[in-house]
């Protein structure tokens, strides 16, 4: 299915996605949108792993397993982050990072 | 231009466009839906690379699990009709400059790097190979990271229950 598509195109797409995620991480103020930016970044890394696996070492499965483990870690991270967000919301009644700037309660 | 190239560039365009919309949309629920589109298109790329198992995991875990979790937490913490105030122009400008510089540099490095042994893709790893490698503890086996991940998921589950639980004293 990938005949004629160079590896570079996959890498460029994932690089663009990574830096768009960084942009969101820098400009967003809501905790959930920051979490979404982090998901974009993790996903772009997955594309890199899979493309390298396919183009450079097609007989092996390393890239695929790394992507699987990254997806699992991302799921764990999202669950813990959302638990923290809900706990923060209960204490401050908003999740804006500029208004949630104290650890006291 | 073959049909697979057209499909690939279509998926790439969807990924880049909806990634930008995800980080710039001022309505949070729409941002979550745009993120869903990005993740589904990524699964499409995995299908194009003939990694069906990984694409299925991407669809069920990312597009199914994480996006639903994010949408639930959005519904719990903010009003649907609420729009964010727009980001200050200075912050937008400087972030865009930093990001564009980083992206430009990375793409330059990637393009100028010669990947010398590009192998034409031939056969696919079978499902049974994935399964036996995942539970194999010998050479090319991934039993240890598999177990570590399972403990991590268990710990994350406990942690999220403990953190999100209501404090009895404050009630």
Helix count of chain B equals 6
Instruction: Please tally the helical runs of chain A, counting DSSP H or I stretches of 4 or more residues.
Output: 3
- Radius of gyration of chain A equals 18 Å
**Can you tell me the residue ranges of chain A where pLDDT is under 50 for at least 5 consecutive residues?**
none
Q: Estimate nothing, just give the exact number of structural domains of chain A.
A: 1
User: How many β strands of chain B by DSSP?
Assistant: 0
Which two chains form the greatest contact, residue counts included? A-B, 71 and 85 residues
CATH evolutionary superfamily of the largest domain in chain B: NADH-ubiquinone/plastoquinone oxidoreductase chain 6, subunit NuoJ
Structurally, how many domains make up the residues of chain B? 2
Task: List the keywords.
heterodimer; A: 105 residues; mainly alpha; Helix Hairpins; B: 171 residues; Four Helix Bundle (Hemerythrin (Met), subunit A); 6 helices; 72% helix
Report what the structure shows.
Chain A is mainly alpha-helical. Chain A has one domain: Helix Hairpins. Chain A is built from 3 helices and no strands. Chain A has helices at 7-27, 31-56, 62-92. In chain A, helix 2 packs antiparallel against helix 3 (62-92). The longest helix of chain A is centred in the last third of the chain and has 31 residues, at 62-92. The radius of gyration of chain A is 18 Å and the shape is elongated. The termini of chain A are far apart. With 171 residues, chain B is an all-alpha fold. Chain B has 2 domains: 1-79, Four Helix Bundle (Hemerythrin (Met), subunit A) (Up-down Bundle); 125-165. Chain B contains 6 helices and no strands. Chain B has helices at residues 3-24, 28-48, 52-77, 89-112, 127-134, 143-164. In chain B, helix 2 packs antiparallel against helix 3 (52-77). Chain B starts with a helix and ends in a 7-residue tail after the last helix. The model of chain B has no long low-confidence stretch (mean pLDDT 87). At the A-B interface, helix 1, helix 2 and helix 3 of A face helix 1, helix 2, helix 3, helix 4 and helix 5 of B.
């Amino acid at each position: 299915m990938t005949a004629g598509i160079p590896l570079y195109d996959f890498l460029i797409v994932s690089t663009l996605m990574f830096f768009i995620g960084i942009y969101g991480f820098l400009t967003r103020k809501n905790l959930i949108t920051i979490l979404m930016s982090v998901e974009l970044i993790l996903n772009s890394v997955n594309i890199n792993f899979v493309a390298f696996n396919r183009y450079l070492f097609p007989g092996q499965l390393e890239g695929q397993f790394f992507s699987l483990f990254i997806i699992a870690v991302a799921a764990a991270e999202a669950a813990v982050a959302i638990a923290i967000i809900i706990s923060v919301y209960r204490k401050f009644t908003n999740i804006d990072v500029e208004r949630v700037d104290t650890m006291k309660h | 231009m073959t049909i697979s190239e057209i499909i690939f560039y279509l998926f790439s365009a969807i990924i880049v466009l909806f990634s930008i919309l995800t980080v710039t949309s001022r309505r949070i629920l729409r941002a979550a839906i745009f993120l869903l589109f990005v993740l589904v298109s990524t699964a499409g790329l995995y299908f194009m690379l003939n990694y069906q198992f990984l694409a299925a995991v991407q669809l069920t875990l990312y597009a199914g699990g994480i996006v639903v979790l994010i949408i639930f937490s959005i519904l719990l913490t903010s009003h649907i009709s609420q729009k964010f105030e727009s980001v200050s122009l200075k912050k937008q400008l400087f972030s865009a400059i930093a990001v564009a510089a980083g992206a430009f540099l990375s793409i330059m490095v990637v393009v100028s790097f010669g990947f010398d042994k590009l192998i034409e893709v031939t056969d696919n790893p079978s499902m049974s190979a994935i399964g036996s490698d995942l539970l194999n503890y010998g050479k090319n086996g991934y039993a240890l990271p598999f177990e570590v991940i399972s403990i991590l998921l268990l710990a994350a589950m406990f942690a999220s229950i403990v953190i999100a639980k209501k404090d009895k004293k404050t009630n």
